[in-house]
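Blinded run. Sample ID left blank on purpose so nobody reads anything into the name before looking at the predicted structure. Input follows.
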Amino acid sequence: MRYFIHAAYNGNNYRGWQKLPGIVSVQQVLETTLSKLLKEPIAIVGCGRTDAQVHASQFFFHFDLSKKMNFDLLFRLNKSLPHEILIYDVIPMDGTPHARFDAVERSYDYYLHTFNDPYLLGLSAYYPLVSPNLNAIKQAMALLTNYNDFKCFCKSPLKYEHTICYLSNAELYTNLDQTILRFRFTSNRFLAGMIRIIVGKLVQLGKEELSLVEFEDYLKHQITPKTIVPVHAQGLYLSKVTYPYLNLPNRSVLGNVFLQSVNLLV
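Blinded prediction complete.
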């Protein structure tokens, strides 16, 4: 029997999603916990991979179980897991749907605050921008959906068969006093480091260290920037994963509170 798990996690204490020797990962913690509860070795497949200190306000993974469960796995998982990892739904699935390969769309949010606030530590990235040029940032984000090859904004382009991504949405939001910025990106796929590299260039645009023409030239002529400085990991959230057969709302309480504070479109 195949099960899909709808989850969320705070990535600050983890070296990313993927299980690797010698590190604490979200995948490793989940597999260990599931194996203990279900009393058999459990291997899970996630909808994607997040880097160290990156969060997921919506995440899906699947696993197969050899026998039918006779207890409330949702309750026991949430009781057994560290508080940084939360399970929303345990969903029995017909056939063999795949958490990673069946996803048709993913959205990421990047949060940035321009004032030093200890209450946002680890939940948003602090960049002390003074009167950033938000209009230039907004124009650059609108340009992104005109292109589909993002090799220039990829950390390791040679590891892919191709670097085509169909970006359907790229929007900038801010709170009323424009001290918290939210960047939202939606696409069928994303490349390694792509969002953090793009936001890094958008920050340069906001500081007027980069022109809009230079930004578009990267995309138009596939010019790799001479300097690539990705923004901090803790501002990045995987926030929505959509399947042809499953389209659940983001249910993260913290994520929704944070979203409400930055819901004004520039």
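Unblinding after everyone has recorded impressions. The beta strands are 2-9, 45-46, 55-64, 85-93, 105-113, 125-126, 167-174, 180-187, 236-242, 264-265.
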